[in-house]
Amino acid sequence: MKTSLSVNVNAIAYLRNRRSLPWPSVVGLSKLALQSGADGITIHPRPDERHIRRDDVFILERLLRQEFPDREYNIEGYPSDDFLDLVSRAKPDQVTFVPDLPDQSTSDHGWDLSGNADLLKAATERLKKQGIRVSFFIDEDPSIPELCKAAGADRIEIYTAPYGGAFERDQIDFHLRNLQNTGRAAANAGLEINAGHDLTLENLPALKNAIPQLAEVSIGHALISDALALGLPATVKAYQEALQSRG
């Protein structure tokens, strides 16, 4: 099964926002990533606009719809009323609900479904009526996918930072087993499987081997870091190749 590569461009927006200047261009580099073979673009517009700004959301929407209609637009965020209004206007292909607080620097855990099922179910129903696919950001726990399915999710995105931050062989294997079991539970529940966070050229092949039915990975930090040395087109190609190899 082919796994789609969605390039998260938040880091590009962070760099742009350090100055009152229009570069580096979020839309320009997103276009370059798509021209280089990326299957989609991911953004996470936060309330304080510290990286992706509201106007970026709609500029990128126009880019994808007008120039790359076959590619995916994925928007991540906490399902607040403001966020739901934003994505209802932008109409991305996929929305990924994350449980981030407004002041979090980055996502660092998945949803507690037992305490948030009603919130997620209501938000999911609203977006699915508009034809938007919904994914829930979850931890590597095989007990969670069935709860996601009950709340209406189409997909889950497994939080892979514990795996990405493991360097000892026993820890790597421990997290790979958890990821594999979570992927199997998701497939058994009838959910498609995404993954993201701290994924790299080095750890992608083993993840794909553990979850061969992986539909999509969303990668930002490592990919943009590699692009500083390799260039963005070569980096996108390298990540696509890593997704086709087996670790």
TrEMBL record:
3-amino-2-oxopropyl phosphate binds at residues 8, 19, 198, 220-221. The keyword rRNA processing does not apply. The keyword Cytoplasm applies. GO terms for cellular component: cytosol. Transmembrane segments: none annotated. 1-deoxy-D-xylulose 5-phosphate binds at residues 46, 51, 106. NCBIfam families: pdxJ, PRK05265.1-4. This is Pyridoxine 5'-phosphate synthase. It comes from Rhizobium mongolense. The gene is pdxJ.
